[in-house]
TrEMBL record:
This is Rhodanese-like domain-containing protein. It comes from the Bacteria. Gene3D superfamilies: Rhodanese-like domain. PANTHER family: FAD-DEPENDENT OXIDOREDUCTASE, SULFURTRANSFERASE YTWF-RELATED. It comes from Enterococcus dongliensis. Residues 20-101 form the Rhodanese domain.
Amino acid sequence: MINLFQKVPSISTEELAEKLAEPITLLDVRTPDEYRDGHIAKAISYPFEKIKRYQGEKEELYIICQGGVRSKKAAKILKGKGYEVVNVRGGMNQWHGPVKGGK
C-alpha cells in the first residue's frame, strides 16, 4: 500500500538548475504533448499515467511536472516502490532556465 501522506523532499527550480551540473536523473511526468512543447534538456519523458510501472535504477530521482501536483503524487508512488525521490516545487511553471522543443 502506498502511503500518500509520507513526506517527500522537494527543491526549488533554482536548486534544480544547480543540480543539473551533476549527473542526475530527472523524470518529466507531464503528458507527451506537454513535454514536446518544451522541456529541460536532461529531462526524461515518463508520463504520470505510467509511473507505477517505472523500473529504472534505484538511484535518486528528481520529478517535475507543469505545476508540482503530478510530480508530488509521482514522487510518493516512486518512494513507495523504494526509490529515493525529490519533487521539483512549482514545476515547469517556475522554471526559468533553457528548454528544448516547443515554440
